[in-house]
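Student: I would love a firmer grasp of how sequence relates to backbone shape in proteins. Thank you; the sequence and its tokens follow:
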Amino acid sequence: MKSGELDSFIEIELYQDTPFSCGQPLYGTVHLYAKDNIPNVGQVLLTLQGEEQVVLNLPDKASPKGLKAVTKIHPIVNERFVLFDYAQFENSIIMGSYSYPFTLYLPDWLPQSHLCFNNPDPKKPGLLNTFKIRYNLVAAIMSSSSAEGAPKIVECEKQGLQNIEMQQMLNVRRLTILTPEYSEALLNQEIKITSKIRSMGLMGSGTCSYTCKFEKDVLYPNENVKLTVEIDNSKCSKKIEKYKIKLLRRTQVFNLKNSKQIYTNDHIVISEKVDSKCEAKKTEKKDFEFRIPQNIFLTQAEEDLYKIPLIEKSLAAGPSSSLSGRLYKVQYVLQFSLKHNVVGASQKTMPEAQIPVMIMTPSISCVQIQKPKIQQHPGWEPYAFECIEFSVPPESEEKNEYCKFRRWLIKKEMEFVAQQQKKQGSKVEHNFDNDAAQQEESKGGQDYQQ
């Protein structure tokens, strides 16, 4: 290839289609074309970067629009790998073409790539908060004169190197959805609630109880799911008027220093009301079926996904995958409630049952592999270095933090639900067939202390 055909560049060529799987090898090559000699070269580096990022529109009286965009970031992984050290070549790259093949084993503990939106103000459909997990591979030439631990990219103006750094976004998925680290299975969930029913004044109408049974642990878009409820109204003198079922998507953001919740948003994904036929002094068993909405992300044009103000309101209401991160969390809660035929300002009806569920959507389709420039030049004949294998340390501290934080959150959620329903004078019983999962949740409260 003639030197005049191309300006100097560095790029990453990957040999697989997106998405990439946690715990699996990622094969690729870093290509470098130096139009002229490049002095003061330290190393050619490959960096795996990953982070949680949240952009919130928060109230701000000083802002003309009354809102201020606040960005919060939590790094997940930032590992550097040396493809080649030029100290043995007098810290200089001679003009020419070079290829540095590599095999990078992605850690099996990485959370999957994630994208979620919510609308904090229904009156402003174009206003969206953004929640995402993103990964990048970065190839760069680092200077030999930089201080250790803070390498600088080689200056390019005098050396004719236009693109001395290149980033390739990665779409990472998890092969196994349910793992001990992130999502302990809650199989055959059963919640029983018993409460006294009062109508006008302090007049008692008896006691009612119901048991919710939900046999699913993971839900998928477009899937039909069923909730079974057994109602015992035999000790109550009032008939049941209506049943109500909701599926909420709860988005939460946490303070990284003390793990306190600093933001929460509940969006109703599904809301249905059903008339009841359960009379006073009777029992009833009823099945409720509903469909999980389709993930809108997969049906939109790829280029529209990054034009945040132009995203349709329905896109912000898409299910998105459940996620338990350090910075933010997306959780789904299935709520069931019933209403008796009672009147009066001091009436008391049954409290609602809250069942945590997990929704898994297909991998995000908006991440594309960039086409390497070398494909445009059939005469590309670089000097190829030996392939190097890299892996992120398996016992990363970040992995341990994710595991403990997940268990701690589950324990706190169950405590909160029990406390709220106890205040309402109700008896709540939680039963899980998966004893191992329940033990892990109890363990989490001891492991994670801030």
